[in-house]
Amino acid sequence: MIFEDYIFRNAELFAEKTAVICDDKKLSYGELANSVKLRANDFSGFKKASVVVFRASQDINFLITYFAIHISGLVAAPLEKDIPAQRFEEIREKLSTYIPPKSTADILYTTGTTGKSKGVIISHKTILANAENLIEGQGFSHDLGFVITGPLNHIGSLSKIYPVIIKGATLIITEGMKDVNTFFNALDLPIKKMATFLVPSAIRILIQFSKEKLLSRAEKIDFIETGAAPISKADMKHLCEILPKSRLYNTYASTETGIISTYNFNDQECIAGCLGKPMKHSKIIITEEGLISCQGDTLMSGYALDEELTAKILKNNTVYTSDFGLLDEKGRLRLLGRQDDVINTGGFKVAPTEVENVAMSIPEIAECIAFQPRISYLEMR
Question: Rounded to an integer, what distance in angstroms lies between the CA atom of residue 359 and that of residue 285?
Fold first, then answer.
């Protein structure tokens, strides 16, 4: 079974239910299934397991193409829509003769924020495991409307498509948070319950500039998930005050590990850096060095065209990360910072987020960032 089987199941069970909305266009599950079948004809001449490299547009057309690639027995490699033409051609050329592992669904290129962009191999089994983790961990339901604000070639937004479709809920695709009015217009759609994924910087924007708008829609917001970067305790508390009845999740996930754990910080404790217990298909192990390693069905299969790097990160069905963490007395993951970001001071290792959380607790401080300047002795002289 592959994820797309649920599209056709939904087309039989509730063909008229709205599957996806983008601007003034929408498709029912029946229409989505037919559109996917029709688009699959475009790939009839492709050799099985070939990699299809394409730009990830922020619209319904992307979903149709992405799903059609899978049902055609091909591998999807969606790249950011604004990627330079030279880089696009470079990746397409490299993958044109690449033979991916059996049952590969996607090759997702990381943003490269911690190094060179890498092609992460994702299997069909991994997609289903990520979906089940999110459904069980965050309570996706049939009557939910989920607002997509991030780029669809990244795991943060792409992974939300899966649980929404499996539950027969509704996706709302937007162009991001550049215009917050577009986001609030999506929340105002005639759907009983709404949810979304927002990076911490987007949450900060809403708290600072659109607090009243968020308050006025509090009853509709079922849950908000955040991740991809640490969120400050101050912003966590502010969001809890604005949305006291909503579930507010902080999630540990990456393209390489998949969706691993999640924590509803709107639980009175509101613990900064807490990322919850491992989900259904995941396991967390803390190494002797204090680094987080992950096991389970959500892991990547490796890096495309880079066996050496794969061997360093993926060993014995375990992905070894560069994140420091610990498991508390309740078995919840606590993130302590990235290996490259930890500040050494007076014999102690301090994560920048620890300093930032203390600073942000002071009412007079609106913004702060903590880092350790990397200055050599010669530069100081």
Answer: 31
Three-point CA angle 312, 313, 318, nearest 5°: 125
**Tokens 């794969």 map to which residue?**
310
CA distance 370 to 353: 7
What CATH code would you report for 5-338?
3.40.50.12780
List, for residues 236-294, the tens digit of each pLDDT value.
999 999 999 999 999 999 999 999 999 999 999 999 999 999 999 999 999 999 999 99
Around Cβ 132, how many Cβ atoms within 10 Å?
Answer: 19
Integer Cα distance of 154 and 150 in angstroms: 8
Structural domain spans, the chain: 5-338, 343-380
Q: Return d(Cα 50, Cα 301) in angstroms, integer.
A: 17
- Determine the angle formed by the axes of helices 200-209 and 233-242, rounding to 10 degrees: 50
**Do residues 148 and 157 lie in contact, with contact meaning Cβ atoms separated by under 8 Å?**
yes
Are 227 and 258 spatial neighbours (Cβ–Cβ below 8 Å)? no
pLDDT tens profile 283-293:
999 999 999 99
Beta strand 221-226 with 247-254: parallel, antiparallel or unpaired? parallel
